[in-house]
């Protein structure tokens, strides 16, 4: 009886070794497959300018926040100003020494940047932008901001923006607008 017990124990141990070696072997990998990935878009420009516009300045968003309509009820009322910059990289003063901007965008009757006309938009409100010399920006793409002397390397050109109600009577709603800019070297 003891012999049978020893023999069956040995048989069990031997089968465990075979089972363990079966699990240890790597199975043959399946054939490779290819699945759709995605798209990578590259957007840029090679320019002859004295500087390169920093990528963060090319398509930026200025957060104007919330302003109460009551703040803009009287004609000529303005909100607080919000600062933003246009950053220029890798500048060289070898040919040009000054930089200015010109802006383009739809305007209201008073020359302020018009809000995007969409359902639920605020009314009787525009946006005024001022350059570093506190000169109001004109959105005709030809009137330049005050020229700034720049230096080799990185330059930051400051601007401020605020909501304005030239006629008064601002109504609540979304208050978004879009402008484009060009860089002018002299």
Condensed summary:
By secondary structure, the chain is of the alpha+beta class. The chain contains two helices and ten strands, in the order αβαβββββββββ.
Which features would summarize this protein structure in a list?
186 residues; Immunoglobulin-like; six-stranded antiparallel β-sheet; 15% helix
Biggest sheet details: 6 strands, antiparallel
Distance between the termini: 108 Å
Structural class: alpha+beta
At CATH level 2, the architecture is Sandwich
Q: What is the number of strand segments? A: 10
**Strand proportion:** 25-35%
The stretches of 5 or more residues where confidence is low (pLDDT under 50) are: 18-22
**CATH-defined superfamily:** Fimbrial-type adhesion domain
Shape: flat
**CATH third-tier fold name:** Immunoglobulin-like
Rg calculated over all Cα atoms: 33 Å
The proportion of residues forming helix, as a percent range, comes to 10-25%
SSE order in H/E notation?
Answer: HEHEEEEEEEEE
Mean pLDDT across all amino acids: 86
- The tally of helices reads 2
Overall number of structural domains: 1
CATH class: Mainly Beta
Description:
The protein has 186 residues and is α+β, with helices and mostly antiparallel strands. The chain has one domain: Immunoglobulin-like (Sandwich), CATH 2.60.40. The chain has two helices and ten strands. It has helices at residues 2-24, 55-58, and strands spanning 52-53, 77-78, 82-91, 98-104, 113-114, 126-131, 140-144, 148-149, 153-165, 180-185. Strands 1, 2, 3, 5, 6 and 9 form a six-stranded antiparallel sheet that branches. The protein starts with a helix and ends with a strand. The model is unreliable at 18-22 (pLDDT under 50).
């Amino acid at each position: 009886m003891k012999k049978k017990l020893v023999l069956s124990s040995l048989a069990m141990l031997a089968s465990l070794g075979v089972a363990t070696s079966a699990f240890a072997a790597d199975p043959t990998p399946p054939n490779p497959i290819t699945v759709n990935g995605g798209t990578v878009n590259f957007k840029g420009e090679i320019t002859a300018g004295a500087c390169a516009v920093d990528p963060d300045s090319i398509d930026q968003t200025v957060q104007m926040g919330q302003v109460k309509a009551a703040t803009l009820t009287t004609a000529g009322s303005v909100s607080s100003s919000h600062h933003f910059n246009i950053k220029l990289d890798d500048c060289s003063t070898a040919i040009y020494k000054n930089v200015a901007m010109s802006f383009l965008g739809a305007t209201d009757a008073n020359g302020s940047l018009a809000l995007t006309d969409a359902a639920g938009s605020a009314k009787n409100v525009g946006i005024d932008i001022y350059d570093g010399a506190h000169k109001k920006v004109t959105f005709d793409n030809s009137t330049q901001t005050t020229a700034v002397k720049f230096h080799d390397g990185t330059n930051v050109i400051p601007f401020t923006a605020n909501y304005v109600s030239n006629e008064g009577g601002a109504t609540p709603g979304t208050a978004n607008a879009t402008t484009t800019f060009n860089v002018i070297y002299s």
